[in-house]
Fold this protein.
Amino acid sequence: MCGASMKEMPNILWLEEIKKEDIVSVGGKGASLGEMTSLGLPVPKAFVVTAQAFRKFLIEKGIEDTIFRRLERLDVDDNDSLESVSREVQNIVLSVDIPDHIKRDIVDAYARMGANGEVVAVRSSATAEDLPEASFAGQQETFLNVLGDDDLLEAVQRCWASLYGARAIYYRAKQGFDDRGVNIAVVVQDLIRSEKSGVLFTSHPVTGEPLTIVEGSWGLGEAVVSGSVSPDNYVFDLRSGRVVDRLIAEKEIMIVPEGERGVKTVNLTPEERIAPVLSDDEVARLATFGKIAEEHYGVPQDIEWAIVGDEIFILQSRPITTIRQPDIPRAGAKPASTLGEVLLEGQGASPGIASGRVVIVRDVRDTSTIEEGDILVTRMTNPDMVPAMRRVRAIVTDEGGMTCHAAIVSRELGTPAVVGTKKATKTLQDGQVITVDGEKGIIYEGAVEAPAPAAQATTVAAAAPIVTGTLVKVNVSLPEAAERAAATGADGVGLLRIEHLILGLAKTPGWYVEHGEEETFINELYTGIKTVLDAFPGKSVWVRTLDAPTDEFRNMEGGEVEPIEHNPMLGWRGIRRDLKSPEQFRMQVEAFKRLWAAGYSNLGVMFPLVNHPAEFIQARAMMKEWGVDVEKAILGVMIEVPSSAILIEDFIKAGIRFASFGTNDLVQYTLAIDRNNEHVADMYEPEHPAVLWLIDYAIRACREHGVECSICGQAGSDPDMVAWLVGHGITSVSANIDAVVRIREAVARKERQILLDAARRNA
Ligand code: PEP
Ligand code: MG
C-alpha cells in the first residue's frame, strides 16, 4: 500500500458509500454488506473501520516492521513458535494506543449510528491487497453486544489483533499469502436482537433447480451457525412459490444477548422446542431476498438472516464455494511406473508419498537413533513413540489396520503411513532407502522425487467450504493438530481422544493418583483440551473420556500394575474402567469443570464403550456428585457396542444429548473381527448389513427424539459410507483431518440429491 495515497483514505466508510471496488478497504464482509445495501436488501445499519485505518495505526505507532519481521522468521509448522509469535504479535497490537484521529472517527461514527445504534456487533473483515476476494472468514474475532465508546474501541483493537491469531497466521502461510499484504477492516453494525435467525441457501446454478433451503431457529444466529442447535429446515420451490418440505426440529436452546456485552444460552420451553420457527410467508420472503442476492452475484449464495417482529434483516451473503488450500502432501501424483520395485504392500493409512532411510524400531529406546527425515519401521507404534513419530518422514508397521495407533496418529501428524504389511521389520533393512506411498499402501525400493506441490492433491479445506446441512466435524487426538484440524473449516470436533494426550505424558493416570499428583494431571488435561477448544471458538467440541486399553498403558510409568489381559479390546477400558476407578474419572471431570467455568460452553463430554444405559446414568450421577450441573452439561455416548445401538431408546430416555457411532469398535464387536489384526483385515467390513442395520436403527431413534446423531469412527471418513449415512438421516459426521474436504463434498452431493428427489416427488 502506498503511504501517500493511504493517508488520504478515510478511516470510516458507511455501507451506503461502499462500492464493489472498495473491497481492498473494507474486506469481503464489508464489501458484501455495502453491495447488499445498494441492492436494496434490508441490511442492518453499519459502518466500516477501513483497512487503511488499521495500516495507519501500524505505521503511526511504529510497530509495522517489528510485526512483519517476527512473522517472516516464523516456521509455522513449529507449533510452539507459532503459538508464541502469535501471542507476541497480538500483544504488540493490543499494547499501543489507537491514534487520536482514528479514535475520533470511530467514536463520531458510532454516535451517528442513531437511536438503535447503541449496542453493536463488531466483526473482522480481513482482506488481501493482491487478492482481495480471498476468503479469511471465521479466522478473526467477532464481538457481539458491544456498548459504549471504550468497549467499541477495545473491540476494534481486538479484531485487529486477531489478524495475528495462530490459526490465521498458519492458514495464510499455507495459502502463500504475504502477511505484509494482508489487512483487516472492522465492521461495526447495529446488533439485531433477533427473535428468529438462521441461514438460507439459494438454488444451484448448474442444475437450475430453483429451490431455496432455509434453516431457522429461535434467538441469535450463533446457535445455528455454531451447530449447538438443530434448526428447522424448510424447502421452498420458487417455481410454485410454495414451501414443499419442512422438517421441524426439536430446538432445545436459544442464544440471546446478555447484560452489556455477552450472550447466554437459554433452555426453551417444551412448546417452543417443537414450534415451527417460520411461517410460510416468512420463508417466501426470505427466499425472495435470496433470489435477489443470487441473481445479483450470479452464483448460489449462503445467506445469514434474522427476524425481529415482522422485520427481516439480511446479515451476510457469500457464495457457496470450495476454496482449496495446499497442506498435506498426498499420494497419487506420480504414476506407479516411474517408481522403483515394489518391496511390500499393506494398508495405506495416511496419505502422502515420502522417501527416506529406514530405521527399524523394536523398542522405544531404538527411537533415539531416528533423525529428522528417516522412515520409522516397527511392529506397531505405541504412545511412547509419538515424539519420534513427529520427526520421521513416513511410518511403516507390520501390524494394524486403518484404526490402529499408527494410523490415527500419523493422519493427525500429516505423515504418510502404511500399516499391516505383516513383515516390514523383517523384509526391510536398517539404512535402506525406500519410498512409502501412504495412499496406495505400497513401499518401493529407493527414493523417488517428491511430486511438485502443484501436482499434489489437496486435502484440507479453506475457510469458506461448501455449506452443508449435515455438519461435517473433524476428529482430533493430538492438541498440536488442532490448528490444522480447524483449518479444514470443520464445523466442530466430533471426537477428541484424550487418551493420546495422557499417553504422551508417559505416566498412567493411576501413577498421578498414587503419587498425589492429581493437580498436575488435571492441568495437563486442561491445557491440552483448551488448545483444541481455542481452535474451534463457538463450535461444539466433544471430548471423549479416557479410553486406552491396558496394553497401551503398560509401558508407561505406573503401568506395571496394569492387569495383563488376554483380550484388552474387550477388557478394562472405556467408561467401565472410569466407573470403577472414580479417582481417575474425577480428575477428568475436574478438568472439564474448570473449562466450563472458564466459559467453554461448547465443550461436550462423550462416554466411550457404553453397553448399557445404567453406565451413562451412573457416570452422570458421579459428575453431579462432583459438582457438575448435569442438566446443562452436554453429555453423550459413543455407539460402539451392538448392545448400545439396540438399547438406543433407553439411552435417549436416560437423557443423552447426542450419540456418535464409533464404527472402529462397532464393526469389530458386531462381526468378531479384531480391528488391529492384519490377518482378518480383509473381513473388517463397515458396510456389513448387520452393522448398517444397527446404525440405521439407532439413527431412526435419534431422529425421532431430536437427539444429535453422529459418527466418529473411520467409516465417517469414507465418502460412500457418509453418503449412505446422510441418506439415512445422520445429523453430523466427524472425519479425519485429511478427509474433511472430500467428506464435505460427499455430504453436499448427497444432500443435493435428496433435495432434488424431494422436489421431483412434490412437482
Ligand atoms: C471407534 O471405535 O470408532 C472410535 C472412534 O474410537 P477408537 O478408535 O478410539 O476406539
Ligand atoms: Mg472405539
